[in-house]
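--- STAGE predict ---
source: upstream dedup step, 1 unique chain passed
mode: sequence only
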Amino acid sequence: MADKMSNVGKWLKFNGCGITISDLEDLHGELLTISRSKYETLQNEVKLQQHRVREGYYTQKLVSSIEKSLEISV
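--- STAGE serialize ---
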């Protein structure tokens, strides 16, 4: 869970692995809208992100991006 406008919130929304709210008062209502199907989807997406973090996916992606930018500027 994160603020809708935060970078974390945008990442959660983009990757479908969390809920975002703009105000804490919205939390209860947002939780009530989560169906079994949506909950299972969230679980699956969280598992995917856990795997990516453990395997270094995001680190590799960052290093690759840096290497590409260095090749262009050389």
